[in-house]
Amino acid sequence: MGYVGNDGKSNPFVYLDVKIGQEDIGRVVIELFKDIVPKTVENFRCLCTGEKGIGILGKPLHYKGTKFHKAMPAFMIQGGDISENGCGGESIYGLTFEDENFTIKHEHDGMVSMANCGKPNTNSSQFFITTVPCPHLDGNNVVFGRVRFGLGVVKEVGKTSTVNEVPQVPCVISDCGELNNDNWGVNERDGTEDVYPPFPEDWIQPEKFAENGSMENVICKIKDSGNKYFKEESFMHACRKYKKALRYIDWAVNQDDHCKTKESFIDLKTVCMLNSAAVYLKLNDHKKVISFCNDALMIDRKNTKALFRRAQANKYLKNFELAMVDLQTAHKYEPQNLVIATEIKVVKKFIMDYKQTEKERCTKMLKV
């Protein structure tokens, strides 16, 4: 975690803490290339700290609380509109300032660059972060930094559902500032046994860590922290932990082919999917419940918990026939399970009531 720039001088580092909806996604740490574009860097650094106060537009010169208002998968995410209208902004030097130079290229993912109005010398507060190399932007947009930790956070924002490139769930910079030491705060610090960064790509592992089942222990700690939050009915935090555990499982499998067929990893993945489904039932997001249950059933088609939770989600979505199919299948695998038997009675009652309501509605329509 050094601070050394290309010429040996110290470059500043800043952070952006990001939320999607009510969920804390993680921290993005950016190195700013002060040694190459000092004026552009100072603009961004000050907008991260908020030290310049109120601008000429009457808005705080501060990224805190602003949104990533544009997200384009396999391209970039854009934010920094401190005027909050999606097409404006203001620099610390005035409304706009000039292009400093185009020395640094958009040759990697995670490059941080100034957005402009489509013509030279119109930089303000808006910026974008690339998720792929973008050489077509070279010579048009000034690159001034690069993501050193938290690229997974950037890509998570890039994957959000959009309409006309605008995220449908608010993607907000909940906090930001300058880092003054080697503790970049990328690891979890919520008091649970999960002390690992939100995205495994940012994890600096101890030497020989992969030995003795250590990876499984890490994933179990992440999962167990989700269980803790679930018991406390802090469902958004539980959801975040289970999704994090799934990211670590997928990452471990990609790192080591032996994990793909390792029963403990398969079991962990199934448990985290089912736990995620349980969380989304509590949050009344029934389509996501179905999605996680579908994934679990791809691993084990006889998993009665997945069948039962998918049935519950379909019941709430008024897909009663689909719910009944899953419940009857689950009952076939666990005929002594009283919870499943009771739910079958509930859904049967819903079906009968629904048919009666439809019959009465049709009768009224046919009356003269």
Automatic annotation (TrEMBL):
Reaction(s) catalysed (UniProt annotation): [protein]-peptidylproline (omega=180) = [protein]-peptidylproline (omega=0)
The enzyme's E.C. designation: 5.2.1.8
Record keyword Isomerase present: yes
Biological processes annotated in GO: protein folding
GO MF annotations, alphabetized: cyclosporin A binding; peptidyl-prolyl cis-trans isomerase activity
Domain PPIase cyclophilin-type: 15-178
SUPFAM superfamilies per record: Cyclophilin-like, TPR-like
GO cellular component: mitochondrion
Keywords, comma-separated and alphabetical: Isomerase, Repeat, Rotamase, TPR repeat
Signal sequence, start to end: none
UniProt xrefs under InterPro entries: Cyclophilin-like_dom_sf, Cyclophilin-type_PPIase_dom, TPR-like_helical_dom_sf, TPR_rpt
Stored PANTHER family: PEPTIDYL-PROLYL CIS-TRANS ISOMERASE, PEPTIDYL-PROLYL CIS-TRANS ISOMERASE D-RELATED
Protein's name according to its UniProt entry: peptidylprolyl isomerase
Species lineage: Eukaryota, Metazoa, Ecdysozoa, Arthropoda, Hexapoda
